[in-house]
Design a protein that fits this description.
single chain; alpha/beta; Leucine Aminopeptidase, subunit E, domain 1; 2 domains; 15 helices; Peptidase_M17_C; Peptidase_M17_N_1
Length: 459
């Protein structure tokens, strides 16, 4: 399913009405329409809608309640809340003012998302003619990337293991004429990716490093996405309740794939590199163990104090590879720690970065893209927490404090050479349905990043 705006001229006008403007709007309507609105009890509340019939009973227009400014501030896509209350059909914005037409148009497209790979359904679609003045092609590109990200995250590990994740990357490369190279299984050792190999070697599907490139001019942008297609916790096995959502542990990879698609579709003038260590953290005879000391690509050793802290290990090798080319900007995205969720909840994408221009550009872009982010600190005094007695690094410091920060500090040790580095510790999951956001897989951060790139990279 491709998210697209309607192009027909035969669309019902959808009037945007706030509570304090309802009486004025109603008084200006013909008697039949005004009487219908007054009799309906419609108040203009946020998320409400009303179909208004003509003389033959078929709808001639519709109202969407837009609530108050304070109420809209609590919704990412305020208009999208009214969509389920509308009759199936095609609409165009009539009277009234949208706070941010591009954001509301994107929310409309995202509200049509359904994950229907395993369930046959006939959705009752509500289509929208792109509002005047918005860049419809760009919004469709953003929505399409979000659909891809959600589909990848929602697909269970039975159909989205390392092999399938590789195929998704290859499909993307084929579509945009990008090059792709994949290092698989024991070849990871031959090419000096020991941590990726160690984490993934116990799985029935071989671990791999996916390396995609696109663009031959402009600043170098490297994206690194955690592709743990399922995480049992390894020998430090997760309890059942904690394992239930682990199909989404490749959410970092899904988000970077979606972001890469947007960058290529919009033709940004960058040299793009996408690195995805794709593994399953499984349990079998070759599983890596608590207490092991593992070598990394960079030559740093890591003591394994918890096999469930595997994401930072596979990212470390990929980051080290990416940093070797000295990119102008390197970003990692990962569903890395539960500590991040405790800190900011599921709605915010926490990120770590010490480059102030990027921080400012990202924060500004996030507000306009309905893609909220929150800056977290690379708190240097905590460096000692990731330095154990017998190795260079500790993959799971004891004590339980500052888990997201110590994970980010661990990753930063492998980024020397990158001019700028930022790490996103995302959740990539919508726990309950909300306007424009179906329950399930979710993109977090890509639209904010995409909005920040032109300013940061001088595009």
């Amino acid at each position: 399913m491709s998210p697209r705006f309607a192009t027909t001229t035969d669309a019902l006008p959808l009037h945007i009405v706030e509570p304090d403007g309802l009486d004025g709007w109603t008084d200006a309507q013909p008697g039949r329409a005004a009487a219908w609105v007054r009799a309906s009890g419609f108040t203009g509340a946020l998320g409400s809608a009303l179909m208004i019939p003509g003389e033959d009973g078929t709808p001639v227009m519709a109202l969407a309640g837009y609530g108050t400014a304070a109420q809209r501030a609590r919704q990412r896509f305020p208009l999208a809340g009214a969509i389920p209350q509308l009759a199936p059909g095609t609409y165009r914005i009539g009277t009234g003012t949208l706070d941010n037409p591009e954001t509301e148009a994107l929310g409309w497209l995202l509200s049509a998302y359904r994950f229907d790979r395993y369930k046959t359904a006939t959705p009752a679609n509500r289509y929208l003619v792109a509002p005047d003045g918005v860049d419809a092609a760009r919004i469709e590109t953003l929505a399409e990337a979000e659909y891809l990200t959600r589909d990848l995250v929602n697909t269970p590990a039975s159909d989205m293991g390392p092999e399938a994740l590789e195929l998704a990357a290859r499909d993307l490369a084929d579509r945009f004429c990008a090059s792709i190279d994949v290092t698989t299984g024991d070849a990871l050792l031959d090419h000096n990716f020991p941590l990726i190999h160690a984490v993934g070697r116990a799985s029935a599907q071989a671990p791999r490093l996916i390396d995609m490139r696109w663009g031959d001019a402009g600043p170098k942008l490297t994206l690194v996405g955690k592709g743990v297609c399922f995480d049992t916790g390894g020998l430090n096995l997760k309890p059942g309740a904690s394992m239930g959502l682990m199909k989404k542990d490749m959410g970092g990879a899904a988000n970077t794939i979606g972001l890469a698609q947007s960058i290529m579709a919009l033709g940004l003038g960058v040299q793009l590199r996408l690195l995805i260590p794709a593994v399953e953290n499984s349990v079998s005879a070759p599983s890596f163990r608590p207490g092991d000391v593992l070598m990394s690509r960079l030559g740093k050793t890591a003591e394994i104090n918890n096999t469930d802290a595997e994401g930072r290990l596979v990212l470390a090798d990929a980051l080290a590879l990416g940093a070797e080319e000295r990119p102008d900007l390197m970003l990692s995205m990962a569903t890395l720690t539960g500590a991040a969720r405790v800190a900011v909840g599921p709605d915010l994408a926490p990120f770590y970065c010490d480059d102030e221009p990027f921080v400012q550009a990202l924060t500004e872009a996030a507000a306009g893209a309905a893609d909220p982010v929150w800056r977290m600190p690379f708190h240097v005094p905590y460096e000692a927490m990731i330095e154990p007695d017998i190795a260079d690094l500790d993959n799971a410091p004891s004590g339980g404090f500052a888990g997201s920060i110590t994970a980010a500090l661990f990753l930063r040790r492998f980024t020397e050479g990158a001019a700028r580095y930022a790490h996103f510790d995302i959740y990539s999951w919508q726990p309950a349905a909300a306007p424009g956001r179906a329950k399930g897989g979710l993109g977090q951060g890509p639209r904010a990043i995409l909005g920040a790139l032109p300013k940061v990279l001088g595009l």
